[in-house]
Design brief:
Order of helices and strands of chain B: EEEEEEEEEEEEEEEEEEEEEEEEEEEE
Number of strands of chain A: 3
Largest sheet of chain A: 3 strands, mixed
Strand content of chain A: 5-15%
Largest interface: A-B, 12 and 23 residues
Radius of gyration of chain A: 16 Å
Structural class of chain B: mainly beta
Strand order of the largest sheet of chain A: 1-2-3
Order of helices and strands of chain A: HEEHEHHH
Distance between the termini of chain B: 33 Å
Strand order of the largest sheet of chain B: 1-28-27-26
Oligomer: heterodimer
Shape of chain B: globular
Strand content of chain B: over 45%
Radius of gyration of chain B: 21 Å
Number of strands of chain B: 28
Number of helices of chain A: 5
């Protein structure tokens, strides 16, 4: 069964370059804090649930929409659905959340929200993504977990 | 010496504080809930690992006494002891509520309550122990009656919330039930003695996001609620013909928000516990902090003020999911967290 994608012809963008390694990255005496680029690298290659493209290529995630506060242990990611009625918005947000929950140290509080004004159900999707109990329950659903794992892989 | 009789006296102002008694590990993953046995000498814990652990003190140390397994297929969200202390109810994401007792000598699951469509989020026993309420993701609240040995009958299915119901709590002495929801409201229910029908008679509207938990004070005339909107609210019941002149229609009590504690919590407030002995309020927050609030001495009953008397930073290394005062009133607090740990605290003030 093939479901038609919500957005059949999304705009596709070029991939950005790899992270530039600086000399301080090799210096053991310099504390490596998490930065926006590092978070971006963790989520840029997540696959879109409908297209054989990454979230970066669809400009769903951008480095400029990520904020990291190492002192408060906060990571905030805004993502931009390709169209305002995208039914996959919650699934995309969940995939970003799961990827960051797995990759980051447990001390981080991860917030994943829709870029303001980019989705018709922004408030409802944000509330659901912020409800850790519902996220925990969703991740116990094997079908859903399989789909998320495919997106992240 | 020229009469400095008191000069070497040192005046120490004691600050209220929360001292860690013990950190308990044993669960794998998130610990969602902890519940004191009514006598305060043991407690139960539950979580993501689908087990219930029963803890009691051996000498000075708390240790696991019993582990209950195979009762649930998914996360156990909440456990609650019956008022008599002989039964333990567990609410699970597997859509069932299990009732455990040790009539056979050891704890066994002797009844399973089914009916919710999906995750059961909360469970609570009425003060008499004759009624049990459950609530869940299917937006409903169920009232069950203890009909006999290991038998439970559904008395009512209340479908008045329009979203996920997070918690239920009974009035401390009457068969009055309150529920908190993702729809930002709290609802209050009772049974109509004329036709034995349960219905909602009050909707408490003021929170701006999910209401995660709620706790009555010892009189049952006040209710504290906590929310994803980072506030705690205190509600008061105004009965018909109240002295304050609050208008009460339909001969039913009206509940009004009489106090909002805002600006104290920096993230979602997941739980609140109102000590029936000291009147102190404790909160569990997503900023890893446990806070204790005390009502001011000169507090106006219709517009009370509460002071933050203790802030325990880094009470856990992740979100605090639950706090609960020891029911004996010895100022002990239990807490648990996403970090997989349970902690026991002793509160002291001057």
């Amino acid at each position: 069964m093939t479901k038609t994608a919500d957005n059949v012809n999304p705009d596709i963008y070029d991939k950005g370059s790899e992270r530039e390694i600086t000399s301080s990255d090799y210096d053991e005496n310099i504390e490596d804090l998490f930065d926006e680029r590092e978070i971006f690298d963790l989520i840029r290659n997540i696959n879109d649930p409908e297209h054989p493209l990454t979230l970066e290529e669809l400009r769903v995630v951008e480095e400029s929409n990520i904020k990291v506060d190492n002192i408060k242990n906060l990571v905030h990611v805004s993502f931009t659905p390709t169209i305002p009625h995208c039914s996959m918005a919650t699934l995309i947000g969940l995939s970003i959340r799961v990827q960051l929950l797995r990759a980051l140290p447990a001390r981080f509080k991860v917030e994943v929200e829709i870029t303001p004004g980019s989705h018709a159900s922004e408030y409802a999707v944000n509330k659901q993504l912020a409800d850790k109990e519902r996220v925990a329950a969703a991740l116990e659903n094997n079908n859903l977990l399989q789909i998320i794992n495919q997106c992240i892989a | 010496m020229l009469g400095h009789e008191h000069s070497d006296e040192i005046y120490v102002t004691k600050m209220p504080k929360l001292d860690l008694e013990q950190t308990l590990t044993g669960h794998k993953g998130i610990v969602w809930h902890v519940s004191w046995h009514p006598q305060g000498k043991m407690f139960a814990s539950c979580g993501e690992d689908k087990t219930i652990k029963l803890w009691s003190k051996e000498g000075q140390e708390w240790a696991i006494k019993t582990v209950l397994v195979d009762g649930h297929k998914r996360t156990i969200r909440q456990i609650e002891w019956s008022p008599c202390g002989n039964y333990l109810a567990s609410a699970s994401f597997d859509a069932t509520t299990a009732i455990w007792d040790k009539k056979s000598g050891q704890f066994e699951c002797n009844a399973t309550l089914e009916g919710h469509e999906n995750e059961v989020k909360g469970v609570a026993w009425s003060p008499s122990g004759q009624l049990l309420a459950t609530c869940g993701r299917d937006k409903s609240v169920w009232v069950w009656e203890v009909a006999g040995d290991d038998e439970y009958e559904c008395e009512a299915v209340l479908n008045v919330h329009n979203q996920d119901v997070k918690k239920v709590a009974w009035h401390p002495s009457l068969d009055i039930l309150a529920s908190a929801s993702y729809d930002n409201t709290v609802k209050i229910y009772k049974e109509d003695p004329a036709d034995n029908d349960w219905s909602c008679f009050a909707t408490l509207q003021s929170h701006e996001s999910t209401v995660w938990s709620l706790a009555f004070d010892k009189t049952g005339e006040r209710l504290a609620t906590c929310s994803d909107d980072k506030t705690v609210k205190i509600w008061k019941e105004y009965k018909p013909n109240n002295q304050e002149g609050v208008i009460v229609a339909d001969k039913e009590s009206v509940w009004k928000c009489i106090c909002t504690l805002s600006g104290f919590h920096t993230r979602c407030v997941y739980d609140i516990s109102w000590c029936h002995n000291t009147g102190l309020l404790a909160t569990a927050c997503g900023d890893d902090i446990i806070r204790i609030f005390k009502e001011s001495d000169d507090s106006d009953p219709n517009a009370p003020t509460f002071e933050l008397v203790c802030t325990k930073l880094d009470a856990h290394s992740q979100d605090v999911n639950c706090v609960t005062w020891n029911p004996t009133g010895n100022q002990e607090i239990l807490s648990c967290s996403d970090d997989g740990e349970i902690r026991i605290w002793s509160f002291s003030s001057d």
